[in-house]
DNA sequence: CCACTAATTATGCAAACGTATAATTAGTGA
DNA sequence: TCACTAATTATACGTTTGCATAATTAGTGG
């Protein structure tokens, strides 16, 4: 009777794990959390649902792993933009701001993904830890970049003021990122990046130039 | 047997509707979307679940109504802060900024509520309309306040630049609101409001003073 | 005080959910 | 090629979900 059992191949563990995480992220981003059921995730990853339990002892664990991966990729992407931006602290700061406010960082799916996770963050301890670490990482990076830029231009700022500048710049970037992703039609192309550069310039008192095409 | 049927009283329709909406908002804010089931909502509103269907033909409709109400209250609250802030355009702008960055507007539950809704916004047309209108209202209010403040201080700005200033200020307020709500322990009391005032000051080039205690 | 209406409760249903467990089968080493 | 292991499929279970429908009962107008 049951002679139509599904064929399959055994993939390396890390690869299967990754495929399941990708499927989870894609589903949440595209159709929302409620669409990311174990059955849908399995279908998207082209396996049967039982396999999920073989790699993640609970669905919560899968979602949490997906969150960590997603946040890690976001931080890596912006960090990479800085490192490829050359030498000058001011130019590096400008690159950081602009990169965070352009595709692929500014993206409807990324925003929706982030919002989906924010709910769970409150009730899942592991996710909350990831959340706080990611935020701190972002702000520390920004603070370091601002500090260097201020030094380069010969301005003096105490610790307390520096912290406030970093919080403010981080907030304006977050806000623009959010609105650029959630309401894409409201902005002209590249407007978030332009406004972000102008705003950060005003806040820290250093003119940041858009360094596109300087590679 | 069934001689213990639940007692009840017939409430005015608007009151019941409101109670159901309040229960929905409270549940989503406190325990997340997945906890806001029809049964839990009914329990929180102290009715049985069948009644929900009597006031809302579908759960989606209830959630959508709750979203509209929540957003309306947010806009009303900030708008009220402006109107009670007196005459001077600069003072009014300062009041608007500060009010949006202090309790009760800055609040973990409000942020979590907002994030919960953001997912649904993409797939529910009615909610998307509400979302876009709310954002536009906020920004238009801010733009008007900035325009008046600039005129008061004798600065000239064209339409395009004004729009950009409004977007930037809105973004920094949103970002601070978000972070202040999502990571309350990261900030000192009133720090979001202080940083917000300083940042908006820097962006538009007008010093905004904190007007607390000027009533 | 009685009949009538609709607000409310009570009960039920089919579908979907996460999880558990049993049955298979692909790959591996002897 | 043959057993062995674990990766994978298949099936099932108990809950919970949103929604529907029938049974009651609180309030109202005559």
Structural commentary:
Two copies of one chain form a homodimer. With about 220 residues, the first copy, chain A, is an all-alpha fold. Chain A folds into two domains: about 1-55, Orthogonal Bundle (Arc Repressor Mutant, subunit A); about 65-215, Orthogonal Bundle (Tetracycline Repressor, domain 2). Helix content of chain A is about 70%, strand content about 0%. The first copy, chain A, contains nine helices and no strands. Chain A has helices at about 15-30, 40-45, 50-55, 60-85, 90-100, 110-125, 125-150, 160-180, 190-205. In chain A, helix 6 crosses helix 7 (about 125-150). The first copy, chain A, is elongated. The interface of A and B includes residues 135, 164 and 186 of A. Chain B binds a DNA duplex (30 and 30 nucleotides) through helix 3.
């Amino acid at each position: 009777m049951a002679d139509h059992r599904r064929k399959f191949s055994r993939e390396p563990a890390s690869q299967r794990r990754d495929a399941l995480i990708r499927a989870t992220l894609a589903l949440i981003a595209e159709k929302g959390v409620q669409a990311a059921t174990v059955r849908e995730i399995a279908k998207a990853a082209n396996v049967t649902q039982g396999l999920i339990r073989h790699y993640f002892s609970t669905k919560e664990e899968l979602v949490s792993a997906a969150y960590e991966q997603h946040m890690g990729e976001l931080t890596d992407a912006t960090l990479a933009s800085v490192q490829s931006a050359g030498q000058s602290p001011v130019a590096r700061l400008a690159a950081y701001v602009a990169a965070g406010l352009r595709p692929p960082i500014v993206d409807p799916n990324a925003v929706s993904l982030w919002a989906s996770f924010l709910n769970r963050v409150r009730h899942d301890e592991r996710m909350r830890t990831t959340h706080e670490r990611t935020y701190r990482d972002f702000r520390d990076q920004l603070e370091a970049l601002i500090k260097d830029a201020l030094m380069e231009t010969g301005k003096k700022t105490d610790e307390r003021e520096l912290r406030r500048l970093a919080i403010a710049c981080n907030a304006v970037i977050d806000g623009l990122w959010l609105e650029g992703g959630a309401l894409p039609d409201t902005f002209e192309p590249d407007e978030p990046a332009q406004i972000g550069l102008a705003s950060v310039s005003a806040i820290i008192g250093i003119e940041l130039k858009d360094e596109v095409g300087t590679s």
